Structures are given as C-alpha cells and as structure tokens.
C-alpha cells in the first residue's frame, strides 16, 4: 500500500492508481508538458529548485523546517513527577528496563543547575557521562544533554560560579567527541556526523568564552574578607576540601599565603580525603614534624580518588527502587521511609544504569 500522507517512511512523492499498478506522479514533468516555454538553460542551471511545484515543494520545505527544529530547539523534557523507577529487568508487573538517557530526561537536571547545592553534583555527573557514557544515550537524551550543558556554561558566564569544574567538563567532552568523530568513526554515534562536528565547534567556542571570562572586582562599603581576624581566615581555609581552592586563595594576599602553607591545614586535608583508604589509616597517628603534608597530599592524590562532597545529591529508595531529589520526594510505601534512603554519588548514578 503506498503512502499518501507525509509519512516518515515516504520520500514525499504522490502516487496514482493505473491499470498496471501504482505509478509515481512527477510534478515538474507535468509542468514541462503544460509549459513549453521553459528554457533548457534554466533546466541545466544550479538554481532549479523553482521547478519543483505543488506538493513536492511543500514537503521539501516542511522537511527542512522539521530538521532545523529538531537540531536547534531548546525545549526541555517536562515531566510532572521528578522521580524515576530504576528497573534493570522485566518482571510480571513491569516490562522493559530504565536507561541512563531516560533518567537524564526525567530527573529535571535543567532546574537542578539553578540550585547552588546541586550545581557541582550535576556538573560532575555530566563530566562522567562525557568520559564514558555519551554513546549510550539516545538521540533525544543527547539533545537534552547538550541543552542542559549550554545552560551550565551560561550560568558560569553570568554568575562566575566554579568555572574550573566546567572547564574540566568541556575538556573531557571535547576529547571524547574528537575521538568518536575522527578516530572511532560515525558508527557509534546517533545522528548525522555533521551534527556532532557542529557540537564540537560549539564546545570549542564555549571553552574560549570561559578562558576569556573576566571576573569584575566588586566594591563593598562594609566589612570585607581582609577585615576578618586571622583565626577566622584559618577556619575558612579549613572548611575548603579542594587543594586548588586553598592554593588559589593563598595567592590573594601574603597573609593568606602563609596560612595556606600551614602543615596542620594539609594534614587535616590528608586525613579528610585518604584516612579510610588502605595503607593510609595511620595518617592521624603520625606525629613527626618533618612530614611535608602538602607533598603527601599530592602524592596520595595520584593513587587514590578524593572524597566527594556535595551540598545536595540524588537519593535512592531501596524499598521502592526509585531515584529522586530529596526535596521533591517520591511515593514511598515503606513504614519508615527515611531508613530506606541512600545518597547516590555521580559514579553510583552511572553504575545504576550499567547492564
């Protein structure tokens, strides 16, 4: 049965029924029969799109508009429920399984990046997806991924919040796309390879914008950070869990530089990140004054992952097998819902959808 409508399986042709079967109608051929005054040079010229009249021209324009919309739309997936049931196999009650792309669409990461408690969590999760799970996303999930990524970059450019983390994310994503589009090939990508090359160019543009970002100096009439006493400066440094933040803060003033080189500060940082690791459980018992704790920290960092710390994370209900943001909640049927909750790190989130 021929397709008479604008079906995606149809090439956009119109058909007519004859005694010998169905035959395709060639519109510009009919046009040539009706209009004998068309010049041969016009037929041979490159600008011959005007010859296609009627429904052929209409379908071509509709197809171009649809492709342009699908590739450039910024619309996000909107779901009423901000949770997702994580299913890894078929049962009598449920058929199918949940994928990483579906979770990416359902958990409203587009709104989560507007919350500073969740921004670092989402950025780290997107970095892990860029490293290893980008090809496992569906076409719709990939488009949603890049739309949210654009919002992350725009937020950093506007609020100047944690640009170093987003730069690392874009660098990992750029390396992955470069490897997939040039070295591996188009067979592992969903969609046209030209779209991925355009995305790679967009990522390079974002990297240039972040590198050229200038943080304006803010003028305060009241008390500033330099007006605080030294013990308050030391307490603020002890609250930082990232060594790069401590080093950058120490470059602000000579006083902060002296505080940032304190051995006790780096000893606490080593105990915070590596005290639970093998061969590192006796760090707190070391009493020697000749230990360079700053060098110890960067040495351990090469062999062990640092402890991750986030203001807010996704939670998983072991009773309901539901993944959700704690502020939004989920329809739990357990007698004590709080006892079933388990915080999910970005790496654990990736592991939930590995089959």
From TrEMBL:
<keyword id="KW-0539">Nucleus</keyword>
<dbReference type="GO" id="GO:0016567">
    <property type="term" value="P:protein ubiquitination"/>
</dbReference>
<comment type="function">
    <text>Substrate-recognition component of the SCF (SKP1-CUL1-F-box protein)-type E3 ubiquitin ligase complex. May play a role in accumulation of expanded polyglutamine (polyQ) protein huntingtin (HTT).</text>
</comment>
<keyword id="KW-0833">Ubl conjugation pathway</keyword>
<dbReference type="GO" id="GO:0019005">
    <property type="term" value="C:SCF ubiquitin ligase complex"/>
</dbReference>
<comment type="pathway">
    <text>Protein modification; protein ubiquitination.</text>
</comment>
<dbReference type="GO" id="GO:0005737">
    <property type="term" value="C:cytoplasm"/>
</dbReference>
<protein>
    <recommendedName>
        <fullName>F-box only protein 25</fullName>
    </recommendedName>
</protein>
<dbReference type="GO" id="GO:0005634">
    <property type="term" value="C:nucleus"/>
</dbReference>
<dbReference type="InterPro" id="IPR040394">
    <property type="entry name" value="FBX25/32"/>
</dbReference>
<dbReference type="InterPro" id="IPR036047">
    <property type="entry name" value="F-box-like_dom_sf"/>
</dbReference>
